[in-house]
């Protein structure tokens, strides 16, 4: 949350002092709107284990193609704890397509559905022996829904809930002969978890139309 607080103060400062603080001139064609933002990332449960098992932060870029169609390009860093046996670090980098239920530029509430793909890397490190570690690379698909809470035409706070399916073998930690064992599953599989994002975004440019008026 400290990251989001810092980001909020920074973007509010830009919004107040920058010439971009004026309203967006584009009212009928939103294609080309380009945004930047940061977010917190929380994994609520994984497989059948409920509870918060990962927390981190990330950032995203958005490029809108039409009034109801937007894209998001993101990267996340997340840390978690596995039964006090090992720490888990996840890295995500990917993209998503967002479909809006309204074509208005910035209503107070703007809901949407979202789906996409990402590449990810997971590292497990034994809490009692940092040299005991294991990692794996895989990809994932994700889908869910979100909502923009528009502060101004250029700035929004966004909440997103997505279920992420990881395509590939998973890694686990367990006790065997009173020692922590880190295990990578063989073969391929589908493992999933619910991912929540809370972020803030700022439209910095209209790449296709430019600034038509001051």
TrEMBL record:
Residues 8-170 form the Outer membrane protein beta-barrel domain. Pfam families: OMP_b-brl. The keyword Signal applies. SUPFAM superfamilies: OMPA-like. The keyword Signal applies. Keywords: Signal. Residues 1-21 form the signal peptide. InterPro entries: Beta-barrel_OMP (IPR027385), OMP/PagP_B-barrel (IPR011250). This is Outer membrane beta-barrel protein. It comes from Taishania pollutisoli. The lineage of its organism: Bacteria, Pseudomonadati, Bacteroidota, Flavobacteriia, Flavobacteriales.
């Amino acid at each position: 949350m400290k990251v989001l607080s810092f980001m909020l103060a920074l973007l509010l400062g830009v919004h107040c002092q920058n010439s971009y603080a004026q309203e967006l001139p584009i009212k009928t064609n939103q294609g080309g709107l380009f945004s930047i933002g940061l977010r917190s990332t929380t994994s609520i449960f994984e497989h059948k284990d409920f509870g918060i098992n990962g927390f981190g932060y990330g950032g995203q870029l958005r490029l809108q193609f039409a009034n109801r169609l937007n894209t998001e390009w993101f990267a996340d860093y997340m840390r978690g704890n596995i039964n006090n046996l090992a720490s888990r670090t996840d890295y995500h980098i990917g993209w998503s397509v967002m479909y809006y239920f309204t074509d208005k530029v910035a209503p107070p509430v703007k809901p949407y559905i979202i789906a996409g793909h990402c590449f990810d890397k997971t590292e497990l490190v034994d809490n009692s022996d940092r040299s005991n570690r294991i990692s794996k690379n895989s990809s994932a698909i994700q889908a869910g829904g979100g909502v923009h809470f528009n502060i101004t035409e250029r700035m929004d706070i966004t909440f997103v809930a997505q279920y992420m399916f990881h395509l590939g073998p998973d890694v686990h930690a367990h006790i065997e002969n009173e020692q922590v064992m880190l295990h990578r599953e063989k073969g391929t599989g589908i493992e999933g978890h619910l991912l929540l994002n809370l972020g803030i975004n700022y439209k910095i440019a209209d790449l296709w139309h430019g600034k038509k008026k001051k």
